[in-house]
């Protein structure tokens, strides 16, 4: 029976997962290496819960109850009571493997471990844990409190009991499950990221400006955000990592990351989270950088 959720990484996804888990009544232990990340993360969660209160989706009592269920920590030993640990650190296989080496000895032997990876092989990540049969992908979408979908991905060793528990957990969050096989970037990102990468090529080749490309896709294809705005929202480092996984994993040149995406990441222009990407967010309104 899952009662306590451990979350590794207090970035945008870790905080979103903490938010929806606590709102559904789970106890949440949110871990990050940096204390300021935890502090900022808890403030973001509170802000997003407050938005749900002001739009009438949640009572203020429930906001307070949810917030009280979340404990932040920079000590990995605090994950020892979790029944399910969800890893949501940077999309980098080396970083994730290192974390599994640290968290597995701390976890209860029968606890489940999941990754929120956007693209990496679940089977390969599982091999860096002491519990491949109790390891799988639980892939939330951003922003977690709003998006209804969660992709579930089994590795070669994931057992049925783990899959069933993950499905029940997601249903309890009032989200819809889709099952994807363990192929690079699964379903959503296999389709979405090449579209975003193509939008960046469209910018790189001078076919349109940032504003023209985003307006075209918002008004011409009814997308809620333009592809460059969405890239900034996801994080350009994450977008690049996903394209690299697609390119390496499927060995097809159609997945070649756009050199302009590489350049933005090399500049540290990672999108909304770093204050600048295809838009500059440092003023009152976002301003296109091209
Ligand atoms: C990379 C991966 O591995 C996979 C992925 O996640 S790919 C990315 C998938 N996500 C998308 O494609 C998102 C596309 N964008 C959208 O759907 C919409 O623009 C959006 C839902 C994000 C915002 O919608 P909007 O109508 O412009 O904004 P707005 O009216 O201000 O907000 C609608 C609701 O979203 C919530 N919201 C908006 N941004 C939010 C955020 N960053 N965090 C939490 N909640 C947020 C608001 O609280 C609001 O709910 P309330 O009415 O209860 O307050
Ligand atoms: N962004 C998106 O739209 C989506 C992302 N994902 C996936 O979710 C995961 C997280 O992405 P996202 O939240 O956007 O990324 P962020 O960059 O917002 O957050 C990552 C967090 O992990 C922390 N971190 C890095 N290394 C460690 C470590 N060794 N121990 C503990 N914490 C660590 C980072 O801290 P610091 O900054 O100090 O390094 C940061 O707080 C990735 O796997 C990504 O692919 C899945 C769905 C959607």
TrEMBL record:
Enzyme Commission number(s) from the entry: 1.1.1.157
Top-rank taxon, per record: Bacteria
InterPro entries: 3-OHacyl-CoA_DH, 3-OHacyl-CoA_DH_CS, 3-OHacyl-CoA_DH_NAD-bd, 3HC_DH_C, 6-PGluconate_DH-like_C_sf, 6PGD_dom2, NAD(P)-bd_dom_sf
Site annotation Important for catalytic activity: residues: 139
Domain (3-hydroxyacyl-CoA dehydrogenase NAD binding): residue spans on this chain: 4-182
UniProt binding sites for NAD(+): 9-14, 32, 91, 96, 118, 142, 273
Pfam families: 3HCDH (PF00725), 3HCDH_N (PF02737)
Molecular-function GO terms, alphabetical: 3-hydroxybutyryl-CoA dehydrogenase activity; NAD+ binding
All residue ranges annotated as the 3-hydroxyacyl-CoA dehydrogenase C-terminal domain in the record: 186-281
Alphabetic keyword roster: NAD, Oxidoreductase
One GO term of the biological process aspect: fatty acid metabolic process
PANTHER family reported in the protein's UniProt record: 3-HYDROXYACYL-COA DEHYDROGENASE FAMILY PROTEIN, 3-HYDROXYBUTYRYL-COA DEHYDROGENASE
Entry similarity comment: Belongs to the 3-hydroxyacyl-CoA dehydrogenase family.
Annotated protein name in UniProt: 3-hydroxybutyryl-CoA dehydrogenase
């Amino acid at each position: 029976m899952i009662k306590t959720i451990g979350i590794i990484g207090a970035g945008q996804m870790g905080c979103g997962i903490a938010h929806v888990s606590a709102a559904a009544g789970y106890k949440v232990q949110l871990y990050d290496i940096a204390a300021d990340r935890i502090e900022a993360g808890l403030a973001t969660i509170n802000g997003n819960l407050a938005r749900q209160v002001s739009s009438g989706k949640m009572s203020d009592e429930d906001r307070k109850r949810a917030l009280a269920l979340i404990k932040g920590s920079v000590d990995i030993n605090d994950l020892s009571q979790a029944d399910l640990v969800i890893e949501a650190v940077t999309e980098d296989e080396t970083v994730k493997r290192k974390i599994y080496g640290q968290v597995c000895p701390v976890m209860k032997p029968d606890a489940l471990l999941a990754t929120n990876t956007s693209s990496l092989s679940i089977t390969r990540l599982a091999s860096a844990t002491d519990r491949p049969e109790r390891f799988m992908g639980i892939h939330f979408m951003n922003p977690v409190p709003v998006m209804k979908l969660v992709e579930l991905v089994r590795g070669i060793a994931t057992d049925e009991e783990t899959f069933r528990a993950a499905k029940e957990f997601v249903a309890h969050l009032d989200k819809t499950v889709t099952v994807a096989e363990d192929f690079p970037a699964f379903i959503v990102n296999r389709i979405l990221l090449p579209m975003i990468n193509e939008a960046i090529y469209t910018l790189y080749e001078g076919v349109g400006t940032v504003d023209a490309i985003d307006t075209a896709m918002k008004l011409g294809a009814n997308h809620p955000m333009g592809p460059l705005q969405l890239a900034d929202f996801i994080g350009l480092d994450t977008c690049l990592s996903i394209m690299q996984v697609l390119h390496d994993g499927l060995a097809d040149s159609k997945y070649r990351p756009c050199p302009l995406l590489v350049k933005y990441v090399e500049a540290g222009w990672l999108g909304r989270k770093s204050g600048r990407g295809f838009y500059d967010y440092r003023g009152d309104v976002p301003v296109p950088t091209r």
